[in-house]
Specification:
The chain has 3 helices and 4 strands. It has one domain. The longest helix is centred in the middle third of the chain and has 11 residues, at about 45-55. It is of the alpha+beta class and about 90 residues long. The radius of gyration is 13 Å and the shape is flat. Helix 1 packs antiparallel against helix 2. The protein starts with 6 loop residues before the first helix and ends with a strand. Mean pLDDT is about 80; it is low at about 85-88. Strands 3-1-2-4 form a 4-stranded mixed β-sheet, covered by helices on one side.
Length: about 90
């Protein structure tokens, strides 16, 4: 998907985000053998962070997906599996 986008296409992808609800961004950490989730205020914030992750070495970190956050995820306190990139 976005791995093949040019920089201009990535910017357009971020700009086209329109959902104002919280979104979860999930990235892979291959060397650690796990994934990390970040809760963002909006879809646009999540896409912008996904774009930033595309700049990293894919052996260290890579974008997996972003999706709307569930009410349970928004209400869940910070723990080892969910990090709040921005306070809600």
């Amino acid at each position: 998907m976005i791995e093949s986008y040019s920089h201009e296409n990535l910017l357009n992808w971020v700009e086209s985000a329109s959902d104002p609800q919280p979104h979860v961004l999930i990235v892979s950490l291959p060397k650690q053998g796990r994934s990390q989730a970040f809760l963002h205020k909006t879809e646009r914030h999540a896409r912008a962070m996904a774009m930033q992750f595309q700049c990293f070495d894919p052996d260290l970190v890579s974008f997996e997906l972003h999706r709307p956050a569930t009410p349970e995820e928004v209400a869940r306190p910070i723990n080892g599996n969910l990090m709040f990139e921005e306070s809600l």
